[in-house]
Amino acid sequence: MKCPSCGSLESRVIDSRLTKEGDIIRRRRECAECQRRVTTYERIEESLPLIIKKNGGRQAFSRAKIMAGIEKACHKRPVSAEDRDELVEEAVRVAMAVGENEVPSSVVGEAVIRGMKDLDDVAYVRYASVYREFGDLTHFIEELNNLVKSRNK
Fold first, then answer.
1. Are 34 and 44 in contact (CB under 8 A)?
2. How many separate domains does the chain show?
3. Is residue 71 located within the same domain as residue 96?
4. CA 122 to CA 144: how far, in whole Å?
5. What's the predicted TM-score (pTM) here?
C-alpha cells in the first residue's frame, strides 16, 4: 500500500477490525518512512447492478456517488465517518439482495434514508429533501411532523 504522504511502499498494520456485518475489514496502517497513519478497507470485489434512475436512464452503481450525497446531508453534523461508511455498505447490501442486474434508484435511496433516520434527524431531513424532491415548505413541514411523531412513540 503506497503512502499518500511520502509514497513509500512499506507500512505496517496497527489495527484490524471487521465491520458489524463482517463483510469488510478496516485496517489502520502506519508508514515505515514518515509514520503517517491511514485507514484502508478490504472488501470482496463484487459485480454490482446497474442503477435505474427516475428518468429511466441507467448508470453504474457508484459507492462514491452515494457517499457524496451522505456527506452533503451530514455536513457539520455529528455523524462519524464509520457511520457514513456503514450507510454506503448497507445500500450496497440492499442492492445486491435484490438479485437482479438492474436495481431502481429508489431501492438504494430508501436504504440510505432508513439508516440516516436512525443516525441524525437534521441529516435525515436534508437527505430526504433532495431524495424525495421536496417542492416547497409544506413538504418540509410534513416530513418534520412525521419525524417528531415517530420520535414521540
1. no
2. 2
3. yes
4. 10
5. 0.66
Q: Are the CB atoms for 42 and 24 separated by under 8 Å?
A: yes
Cα 113 → chain centroid = 10
Q: How far is CA 38 from CA 1, 4, 23, 133, in A?
A: 10, 8, 20, 37
Beta pairing class for 58-60 and 50-52: antiparallel
- Check whether residue 85 and residue 146 sit in a common domain: yes
Distance CA 53, CA 132 (A): 13
**pLDDT tens-digit series, residues 72-92:** 999 999 999 989 999 998 999
Q: Are residue 39 and residue 68 in the same domain, yes or no?
A: no
Q: Quick one: how far is CA 71 from the chain centroid?
A: 8
Domain of residue 32 covers: 7-45
- Report the phi/psi class of residue 132: left, alpha or beta, with left for phi > 0 and alpha for psi in -120 to 50: alpha
| pLDDT per position as a tens digit, 105-121 | 989 998 999 899 889 88
Q: What is the 3-state secondary structure (H, E, C) of 74-88?
A: HCCCCCCHHHHHHHH
